[in-house]
Each structure stands twice: as C-alpha cells, then as structure tokens.
Amino acid sequence: MTAAATTPPYPYVGPEALRQPIEEALQRVVDPEVAMTIVDVGLVYGVTVTDERLHVLLTMTSAACPVTDVIVEEVELELEGAAPRTMRVDVELVWEPAWSTDRMSPRAKAFMGW
Amino acid sequence: MPGRGHAHPRARVVARLVLVPAVLLALLAGTAGGLVRAGIVLPASGAWLGQAVLGHAFLMICAFMGTVIGIERAVAVRQPLAFAAPLASASAGVLHLAGAAHAATWVAAAAALAFVAVNMLVVARQRAAHTVLLLTGALAWLAGNGLLVAGASPSAVIPWWFSFLVLTIAAERLEMTRLMRRHQGASQMLYAILAAMLLGSALSAVSPQWGGLLYGASLAGLAAWLLAFDIARRTVRTRGLSRYMAVCLLLGYFWLAVSGLAWCMSSLGLPARDAALHALALGFVFSMMLGHAPVILPAVARVKLLFGWAFYLPLLLLHGSLAVRLLARHADLGSLAAGAAGNALAMALFAATLAGSAIAWRVRHAPSHTPSTGSHDDAVAAP
Asked: Which residues of A touch B377 (CB under 8 A)?
C-alpha cells in the first residue's frame, strides 16, 4: 500500500492530517474483477473533509454495474474506520464527467500493459 | 450500511421471497430435464418432469439465466420497476412446469420486452458501446421469445437465445477491456463478429446450414477476440478471487471456441449438436457465472462470502465433466450420461461452496463490529 505519488490521485480538500489515512482507506477497496483498487482505477473523483463531514465523489466505469452498492458500502466502511468517530461519511455516486482511462494511475496502466 | 437511501429494501425483499425460489426451481427443473435427456433415470416422476424435459432450454435460458440477468440489471439501475422483467421470466418458468407452456411463452416474451425497456434506461443513462450491446442482447432475447410465441422451430429460436447470453457477456467484457490500451480496430472487429452472430441467428430460421455456419464462425471469432483483448490474461497473474475469476473466464473462452467449431460441424451434418449447445451453455456461460457469482451474489442477495481455494473444486468438476461429455463421447456412449451427471454435480457442489463460503465469512467476522474489514479485501487476500 504505497500512497505516495508525485501527483495526487484525486482532488483533496481538508485537513492535511487526514489526507493519508483517507487515501489508505480508499486503497483498501479493491474491485476484484480488475484486481485493482478503486483509487488506481481512478474511480475517486474527489474528497472534501469539513469538521463534521467526509464527502467522497465516486464514479463507476459502467452504469450497468450491479456491484456498485457493494463498492459504495465498502468505501463507507473503510472511511468510517479511518475518519474521526464524530464525522459523517458521505459517499456520492456521480456519472459526470464520465470515467475514462486518463484517470487510471501509472501503476494501474503498467498492470494493464499501457 | 443502515439507512442507505438507494438500497431499495422492499425490492430486495421481493427478490428474496419470490425470485430466489423461482430461480432455483427453474435451475433444478431445467437440470432434471437435461439429465433425463442425457439418458439418466431420475428418482422422480410427475407431469412437471415431462415439461422439464421438453422445456430444458426454455427453463435454463429464459427462466433461469434470463431471470438472473434480469435481477442483476434491476439491481444495477436501482429502479424497483425493473424487477418486473425477472419476475415475469421467473413466472414463465413456473407456468411452463405447471403445464401452461403456451402461456409461458407469452409471459417470457413480456419479460424480454420489459428487459428491453430496462436496458433502454441503461443506455439513456450511459450511452456507451457496452450499454448499447447490452440492449442489443435484450433485443435478441425478445426476437427469440417472439419466434417462440409464433411457433418457430428450436433451430430458429435457440441461436437468438444464445445471442442474448453471449451479447450480455461480451458487453461486460468490452467494458473491462476499456482498461487496456485500445488496439486499433479492436472494437470494430468485435462489432463485426457480433453482427455476424446476429445475422447467423436470423439466417438460422431460413437456412439452418448457412445460418449455423455463420453463427459458429462468429462464436469462434469471439473466442479469439476475447483471448486476445480481455483483461483476464493479465488478472490471471494476480491471486485470490481475481485470479479465480480470470481462470473461469479463460476456460470459458476455450469452450466458446469449441462451441463455435462444433456449431459449424453440426451445420454440416456432423454429430456435434450436443457439443455446440453445451460447450456454449455450460463451458462458456456457466463458467462466467461461476466466476462472477462471488462478486454478484453479495451485491444482489446481500450475502457476504469469503473466497477460498474450495471455489476451484466445482470449476474443475464442471470443466472436467464437460470434457468427458463432449470429447470422450465418440469412444463411449455412456460418457454423455456420466458427463451430464458431472455437470449437475458441479452445480450442486458450487451451491454448497457458496453456502460454505457464506458461513466462513460469518465465522471469520464473528466478533462483530471489527472495523476496516472490507469483504473484497478479505476475499482477494484469502489463500
């Protein structure tokens, strides 16, 4: 689990102390079909942390994906473990802008033979 | 998670109480019908068994696979009305077994029509090649069921039914291949192969020979395309659930190629019809199902599973018994029955494996409320 990357995998707004724990939590959510984490696939569009709310924008590669709810729940579960107890975890599913391969991490691209 | 607004708990309750027994009934009766067709004497009797023998393909493809795919899509679109399609296809299976075969065909046609509507919603939400292919698959199902209502012969109906399943799988694989670098013309090649398959389906009604040849060639072409461009060749190098899924896919592609070849041979009058149908249905479609059940089931049935090596046992039995059934057949006529029995046992063993993995997950997570234990994390990391 290396969180380090030269460019951040998604826009992050919030306290610096939570940046890494949140990224590590998100890196624990794996899509077994592609054998990669949702961060590497580029499904996380952004994270905004305020005093009482941890807001994540998440997309899926397909609108016909039946596993969507399971992935959203796993993200919530992992973030609830990483965030302060008083914080509300709020995962929002978005379809705009549509996911593209540009969002894949260098590690993901290397794995898929780019 | 408590209070998730999008979970549609009522739809899930309906799915569990009505659809699960109906899906199991279609699978069990369809399998029983298949076993009798393979020459096995079952310790069962009754009018339903006769119906099951007659309607083996209808039960397996429309009532079982059609319902499973319908549920999967309904869960994906998060629209309770979308469950009308699987409810109808499941009812069609029950009606058929109850002796109302003609009514069952009409209800199946209605199911396919509803499923087309659901897929139009998917396309409206995401206009992409793979969603359009899913819709095309639904239309192929509708074409097959329409022909069935009109009283067409099995040789005219069956290619459309398989086109429905193959297009559904191809669409999902195309979506995955987006993760790989686009090969110039790869998508166009896939569309050409699938167009040939649809043309072969249509042609089968008027000329089973030419239609069958085109259909078989397109299946073999699709197998080659999937082997060349699917991510499974990469994910098979990982471990745990991801590797298992990739193994299921790659074995499926092998049988898809076998089916294509057998479909061509059968069209030329050679005795390869059982191989054409069952390499496709069991080797390709069921292998996909075995591969995806550990991720789809938690999504549609809210059951957590712990992946383990035991999942390879039913997979091995399925493919081994299929090889016996199809390849050893010419040496020994009894191998059809033995192979078919092995196919059925593989499904039973898979059901037992799923049940065991659900229990294993509960045992593993017995001291409740341990944070940070995502099921996929466990699933992938498990030996």
From this structure: 28-30, 74
- By residue range, what is the domain housing residue B108? 15-125
DSSP string, A93-104: E--SSPP-GGGS
The DSSP bridge pattern shows strands A36-37 and A30-31 to be antiparallel
Number of domains chain B is built from: 1
Under 8 Å CB-to-CB from B325, ≥6 apart: which residues?
B274, B278, B335, B336, B338, B339, B340, B342, B343
B120 in a structural domain: yes
B308 near A CB under 8 A = no
Residue in A with minimal Cα distance to B302: A70
Q: Which residues of A touch B (CB under 8 A)?
A: 25, 28-35, 41, 61-70, 72-74, 76-78, 80-82, 93, 95, 98, 101, 104, 108, 111-114
In angstroms, the CA B336 to CA B38 distance is: 6
Number of domains in chain A: 1
Predicted confidence pLDDT, tens digits, chain B (383 residues)? 333 334 456 666 766 788 999 999 999 999 999 999 999 988 888 899 999 999 999 999 999 999 999 999 998 898 889 999 999 999 999 999 999 999 999 999 999 999 999 999 999 988 999 999 999 999 999 999 999 999 999 999 999 999 999 999 999 999 888 888 877 789 999 999 999 999 999 999 999 999 999 999 999 999 999 999 999 999 999 999 999 999 999 999 999 999 999 999 999 999 999 999 999 999 999 999 999 999 988 888 888 899 999 999 999 999 999 999 987 766 676 888 999 999 999 999 999 999 999 999 999 988 754 444 344 433 333 32
Is there a domain that residue B333 lies in?
no
Q: What is the CATH number of the domain that holds A90?
A: 3.30.300.130
> Would you give the DSSP letter of residue B382?
-
**What global pTM score does this model have?**
0.89
Half-sphere exposure of B137 (CA within 13 A, CB side): 28
| Residue B351, phi then psi, degrees to nearest 5 | -60, -40
Tell me whether B235 touches chain A (CB under 8 Å).
yes
Would you say the ipTM is above 0.90? no
